[in-house]
Amino acid sequence: MTTEYALRMGDGKRIFLTKEQIIADLEDGSADAADLGEIQALSGDEIDKLAEILMTPSRMVGVEPGKEVPVTHDIGTIRIDGDQGNSGVGIPSSRLIGSMMHERAFGADTMELGHIDYSFKPVKPVIAQEMQTMEVCQQNMIVPLLYGAMPNMGLYYTPDGPFENPGDLMKSFKIKEAQESMEHAAEHLTRDMVWIMQRLMSSGADGVNFDTIGAAGDGDFFASLHAIESLRKQYPDIYIEAGMAGELLLGLHGEMEYDGTTLAGLWPHQQAPLAAKAGANIFGPVVNTNTSRTSPWNLGRAVTFIKAAVEASPIPCHVNMGMGVGGIPMFETPTIDAVSRASKAMVEIAGVDGI
Amino acid sequence: MGMPISHIMTSGMSGIRAAGDLVARMQLSKNMRIADAKDYVAKKLEVSTLDLSDEYVMRELRDDLGIGVITSVAGAPKGIAAKMNIEKLLDIKINCCEKFRNQVD
Q1: Which residues contact A125 (CB under 8 A, 6 or more apart)?
Q2: What is the pLDDT of residue A10?
Q3: Which of A127, A168, B12, B53 registers the highest number of CB atoms within 10 A of its CB?
Q4: Which of A316, A322, A340 sits opposite B31 (nearest CB)?
Q5: In this predicted model, what pLDDT tens digit does every residue of B8-30 receive, in sequence order?
Q6: Contact A355 B7 (CB under 8 A)
Q7: What is the pLDDT of residue A87?
Q8: Region A328-350: what's the mean pLDDT?
Q9: A203 DSSP 8-state letter
Q10: Are B95 and A205 in contact (CB under 8 A)?
């Protein structure tokens, strides 16, 4: 009788696969990444090592002693006191308590403070509150404490913001006007992110985590790179983590450039050097999970992309491994067996500097 | 909550239980890749890189150096006091410590 191993689909459902099926899916996923990104597929040895991690009979796996890496976070304390919209568990607590719980109860290597909306724009009206909270947290915390938020350029378009929605304009074939709207939004977004971080740096913040950069396309990345560049000039010692929203940077504008590089259509290994050039300390590459594919397929694909990004990056890479990225199933409470296997694979095969 | 804890248990450096915060600081302040950051911190602590994730080694060492321990030890440096000791240990400046000094000078 052929041995089958309990694994997961991209949506988290349990499936059973033979060793041959696992290896075939790993190779297929890796080949897909290599084809799309024009990068090296995983070697036979790397595929075998991945298969070995996936077929480990224990519920949870771990990296070999000495190979541990620091873990940075998105959403921060909101996962404690927030609601389901932020995957929060709804424990009534202050953000100071949430930060200290991560540091002293969970053994977090770093932490971040974030506003309940977790976008930069809504922080502006409550900036004094954020500054005060940052001060109190910094007085009590020992691990690096960043301020985390999403650029979320979509908030700058109608009906939420001042600029006409590029989607509406494009539907009317007003392409030039749509591009101009994105350029205006990017300019305002850069200005807001810099202003907010100026205030938080004056309150003792260690730095900033730009989370889900590029969620609103190439303009979102453009604005973030310029904010990073400006903050690096003003604060040479600021800690900056630049985490992406997806594997492929969508070209909603299509013609935006940074340092002579067109941003539309960049893959993780092409995004990393730009984040470094702008002045980030850590880059957070993303590979999206396909819910209709198996965990070997998704992990083979994700490790291939991330390995290339780690090799191309001049700065440390902390791979994004939340729900639905980095080979983790797209599920609100990802299973521990899947998370630990993906986590170990990223450290031991992709060679990430952190998670 | 289970997901970040799973990552911490699988791959993380355990924060102030061991030396995860110190390695992270070198990545964040000096762009050090993981091997360089571990080497730098290990040399400063006079331990091996393997010891950096070893709670048995780091517990007493952190206590001796006054850089914060995971349990609440009465009278031990915490918060900014611990971070001021980390500044000296790692030869870096930490923003909130600078602000603190400016306010008391």
Answers
A1: none
A2: 97
A3: B12
A4: A316
A5: 999 999 999 999 999 999 999 99
A6: yes
A7: 82
A8: 96
A9: T
A10: yes
Contact B89, B65 (CB under 8 A): yes
From start to end of chain A, where are the E strands? 4-8, 14-18, 111-113, 145-149, 207-213, 239-244, 257-258, 261-262, 282-284
B3:A334 CB<8 A: yes
Relative to beta strand A4-8, strand A14-18 is antiparallel
**Closest to A206 (Cα-Cα) out of B37, B26, B40:** B26
Identify which of A89, A315, A355 has the shortest CB distance to residue B31: A315
Q: What is the pLDDT of residue B105?
A: 73
Mean pLDDT, residues A81-85 = 86
User: Above 0.90 for ipTM, yes or no?
Assistant: yes
Q: Are A143 and A111 in contact (CB under 8 A)?
A: yes
Task: Test A344 with B10 for CB contact under 8 angstroms.
Answer: yes
Q: What DSSP element (H or E) covers A87?
A: none
| CB-CB neighbors (< 8 A) of B29 in chain A | 237, 239, 281
Q: Residues 4-43, chain A: which have Cβ within 8 Å of B?
A: none
Candidates B2, B21, B49; nearest CB to A66: B49
Q: What is the pLDDT of residues B25-58, one digit of tens each?
A: 999 999 999 999 999 999 999 999 999 999 999 9
Closest CA to A102 of A114, A92, A94, A110: A110
Instruction: Tell me, yes or no, if the pTM score tops 0.90.
Output: yes
CA distance A332 to A270: 29
Report the C-alpha gap between B22 and B28 in whole angstroms: 10
The answer to whether the CB atoms of A343 and B16 lie below 8 A apart is no
Cα A237–Cα A240–Cα A241 angle in degrees, nearest 5:
155
B26 touches chain A (CB under 8 A): no
Rounded CA Rg of chain B: 14
Give the pLDDT confidence of A116-129 residue by residue, as tens digits: 999 999 999 999 99
Tens-place pLDDT, residues A5-53 = 999 999 999 999 999 999 999 999 999 999 999 999 999 999 999 999 9
Q: What average pLDDT does chain A have?
A: 97
Please list every residue in chain A whose beta carbon sits closer than 8 Å to the beta carbon of residue B16.
Answer: 103-104, 107, 142-143
Tell me what pLDDT residue A339 has.
97
Q: Is A45 exposed, middle or buried (0-12, 13-18, 19+ CB in 10 A)?
A: exposed
Question: Contacts of residue B72 in chain A, CB cutoff 8 Å?
Answer: 104
